[in-house]
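Lab notes, practical 5.
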Amino acid sequence: MPGYRYLTVLFFLFTLTAFSQEKPATGWGIRFSGFVNAQMFYDTRRLIESREGMVSLLPLPVNKDKAGNDINAHSSFNQLAMTSRLRGEISGPRALGASTSGVIEGDFTGQSNLDNNGFRLREAWVKLEWKSRSLLAGLYWHPLYTPEVRPSTIGLNTGAPFHPFSRHNQLRFEQNTGILKIIAVAASQRDYASNGPEGPSPVYLRNAVLPNLDLQFQLRPGKHIIGWGLDYKMLMPRLKVDLPAGTEYKTDEKVHSFAAIVFARIEFTPFIIQTGTVAGQNLTEHIMAGGYVEHTLDTVNHRITYKPTNQISSWIDISGKGKKIRPAIFAGYTKNLGYAGSSEGRFFGNFEDLAYAYRIAPRLQVYSGKLMLAIELEYTAAAWGEPDNMGKFDNTSETCNYRILFGVFYFF
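Output from the prediction step:
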């Protein structure tokens, strides 16, 4: 099977290259672009991470051996190039009275930690654009991750778990009314999925039937962007329950969760300030803290009910606008706010034992032609503890990690 995968990649490259060299009179064609990215990084502590450490999330809590030594207090070094990216931007003739476009994009980070260096699909969508509205269908960024307002970190985490990070298959409608843009999205899950009894899987959203719904508003005065939005998601964690043990009963219990987001991008002559805050529930699929709990275990009526967790996250990214040298800094904070109801059973989600975490990450980018050299220092601290049945913490202990990252980007 690996041989067939790489044949597919070669065919993809050949097709993009062929079309990028051909621009018929009809306007049809593909513009081929991307970058080669090599990164090397050193960490002072073991981490909760992904893609062999390229996605750094949180320093692990203290884990003492029999002699009292912290096993997680161990440094590491790695270097990788699998985030190198290929992108094809498709143009074509008008259809249904609209201009048409599309994108297909992939990289080599695989679909999971079991598939590192494997070719994966990042984006694949088609877009119809009329004078003041557009319709997009396909794989694209979730609205909680706003491409126009996001951290510009060198590390692959792009601000996670302080900033939402996920791409979803979706139907996306945008309406422009002067300086106001309205975005409405109905999304499904695939690679970024909610957690549940069967582990991370899109099946919980599929079984709930209703797609993830999101409504967002963006004010765009000049070069600035100010936005806010609401998100609603409904999951069905199980189709059956075993209550009491040894029995089997059909169930249709669901867990409902909401999220609100505010964000801004303010552009000045020498620098840009970007910032955002997310207050929400059960944001597992966005690589953020939280999830949901089994609220009640009813052996008489054979029911398990659920309650989501609550969390809040904020971040800010300040970046220079120099053409040759660009200093910048990112800072983020996230806090678990407890469960929406008491817990009698299991927790499904991310970082159940995390009370709060924060990160400060200055960086420097140097440009020369199509080459960019970058260095980033990332300091992340996390407070770990034992939550009670309401998800609250009495005592916590902080651990921290220093990461030094050096990146080389060659754009084409």
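Observations recorded by the TA: The chain has one domain: 2-411. Residues 2-411 form a domain with the Porin fold (CATH 2.40.160.10).
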